[in-house]
Automatic annotation (TrEMBL):
Record protein name field: DNA mismatch repair proteins mutS family domain-containing protein
The family this protein is said to belong to: Belongs to the DNA mismatch repair MutS family.
Source organism of the structure: Monilinia fructigena
Domain DNA mismatch repair proteins mutS family stretches: 456-472
Pfam families: MutS_III, MutS_V
Amino acid sequence: MYQVVEENILGARIITVDRRYWSETSGIEYIQQLAFKEDLEAIKVAIGGNYFSVCCFSAALKYIDMSLSLTFAFHSLRVKYQPSEDSMMIDLATIQSLELIQNLQNAKSKDCLFGLMNETLTPMGSRLLRSNILQPSTQPSLLTARYDALAELSENEDLFLQTRQALKSIPDIEKLLSCLIVIPTNPGIWNSEQDINNILMLKSFAQSIGPVFESLTGARSELLVQIRSNCRIEVVDSTLQLINEVINEDVTYQVTPLDLRNQRTYAVKAGVSGFLDVARQTFKEATEDVHQHVTEIHQKYEMQGETKFDNLRRYYLRFSETEFDGRSIPDVLINRFRRKGKIEDSHIEVILGSDKTIQELLENVRSEIPSLFRVCESIAMLDMITSFGQLVTSQDSYVRPEITDCIAIKSGRHPIRDKLPSQNFVPNDYYATQQSRFQVITGCNMSGKKISMRKSLAIVDELGRGTSTRDGLAIALSIAEALAESRALIWFATHFKELAQIMSERPGVEVYHLSVDMSDPNTMTMLYQLGQGCVQEQHYGLALARVVDLPPKVLTVAEKVSKILISQTAAKQMSSRGVCD
């Protein structure tokens, strides 16, 4: 495993963990302590006989505990065992070369499969889409359910628009739930502030589930009905009730630093603690002093500034440049200094006074984590499906695939290349069954062999080109024959005409080529059209050399050498025929 990680993830920082932490017993104990109670029995059955998976789980949890100083609340982890048999495995090199997640020329460009398909409205949906691109499911029942849901959303405009609108107000609940289940070993004031922020965000999420549930009213497909059931108001009602018992109803999660600070200060209801009420009063008075001081500055210097706040500078004044036209800047605005930290101290006292109540609330909320995780997964799935719907409804070129034993694509196009406005993309047909499972594709450079194969399942690109022509042909031919016997679906691009001619006589093998127009000796026109049979063009390497304007002397010598080699080959063939006769 160490060697595989080093070879496939360049620059990865590998940290070793003591062998004793790779323990099946410890892994099972972690599962019993951390997994949702209702999932325990199913997990135990699933991991039966999977010794290494359980050991890896144990080592990962031990590393998180020891190196990151993080522990998890009991029965708060969503533990799932997902076998590789139900998904497609894609190696790192393929992910990069096919530009599944990132464009090869520009890492920030959206010209990749993920960028093309990502119309999600929530971070959870975006993560699920990325995961499904990197490890696509191969379960027909799961895919069919998604197709049905997508078809219904595409055909029902009201359902689609209402669902998209409801998803816009959903916060990153997946990240939030991860924060709620983590228990820091050395909590400080920052952790206490974040706990209040998390409670306020959880409240916002619970209140936003209702519109999602209502938007799916009338849905008929199995997947949408299941998502609607998981997003019932009753599922989050208990969580919302726990929060409302402690948190003021008019307090909501805010984005700006000042608003969020004020909401944290007045989050817990009054009367819970006398110390908390006194700290709030002190904070209120100190804040009023700030505004009073600002008013005095405005009146004294006859200037109007804007009171601002951020987490680094705290309170500060912002003036328009026009306020200083024809006048000097007052010294009080130049020599800035910070006085006593009365406001900050009172705010810390409020947070500490609220902390005990907030920790008790978190303990109660953690019992609702399993149901909240299911809601989160449903929201992510709904967002991903509606993202597909946005893509399908905005372009007319997408069709619903049928899951069968053969691959048949009519007028298929590369999705990234097809959306580029400057290119007139040429569609091609593809067909593969066990009777035509090995397809050899020939053609000159830049004729479209790689673009053609980027829709394929198993591809081999110019195997054997890194050595001599004779050895390369022998290697490519032997591997091609072995692959043909494996009965896998293969697309095989090559410049070896002999390979195409030999393999064409094997059962289950088809030969194709990418067409090129060479009628004009000074130009080469790539037609990008897939045709039956081996490539017919001769000396397309020399033709390409003329197009790129190589020196005439080089071209003349190359043509002479080519004719000599052809004559020698023809003579050998005649000699061989004479021996055979």
